[in-house]
Amino acid sequence: MRLFHALPQPWHLPMVAVLHLPEGRESRLVEIFARRLRMPVCEAQDKADIAPGTLHFAPPGYHLFVERDRRFSLSCEPPVLYSRPSIDLMMSSAADAYGPRLAGIVLTGANEDGARGLADIGAAGGLTAVQAPQEAATPMMPQAAIAARTPDHVLPLNDLRELLMQLDALHAATH
């Protein structure tokens, strides 16, 4: 929540968040974030367009992919690193779709999911950032991402939010 809190409006860039949630439980993330943020928040749907200025959450129990036509697709393939949705799968597919026009951020977490996906974003020329492990509630994900490929930025959450604001301002100025 702290990463997205107080982002300026209007917001231009689409954002996708993948969290590991217990399978079979209803997610209330959209409801919680929609009450607190000043931007549209939704759960990603199969074949739905990736909407600008919107925070999209991966639905629990499904892998979320970004297709080359900039739409979402959902899959019930087996878990990756014990997780479905998989951060790696979403980030890797987004790197294929967006290439150097993509930014990826890995935050706190208890396994290595996201490390390979963030490395794929970097290999595609995208911007990569990781939450400073010493600030993370559970530093395993940030540490794994740093070990997999040196990110462009390792920052505390407040500075990651500033980075997002700079990227959004740059996007707005060039589109």
TrEMBL record:
<dbReference type="InterPro" id="IPR000673">
    <property type="entry name" value="Sig_transdc_resp-reg_Me-estase"/>
</dbReference>
<dbReference type="GO" id="GO:0000156">
    <property type="term" value="F:phosphorelay response regulator activity"/>
</dbReference>
<dbReference type="InterPro" id="IPR035909">
    <property type="entry name" value="CheB_C"/>
</dbReference>
<dbReference type="GO" id="GO:0005737">
    <property type="term" value="C:cytoplasm"/>
</dbReference>
<dbReference type="GO" id="GO:0006935">
    <property type="term" value="P:chemotaxis"/>
</dbReference>
<keyword id="KW-0378">Hydrolase</keyword>
<feature type="domain" description="CheB-type methylesterase">
    <location>
        <begin position="1"/>
        <end position="166"/>
    </location>
</feature>
<dbReference type="Pfam" id="PF01339">
    <property type="entry name" value="CheB_methylest"/>
</dbReference>
<protein>
    <recommendedName>
        <fullName>protein-glutamate methylesterase</fullName>
        <ecNumber>3.1.1.61</ecNumber>
    </recommendedName>
</protein>
<dbReference type="GO" id="GO:0008984">
    <property type="term" value="F:protein-glutamate methylesterase activity"/>
</dbReference>
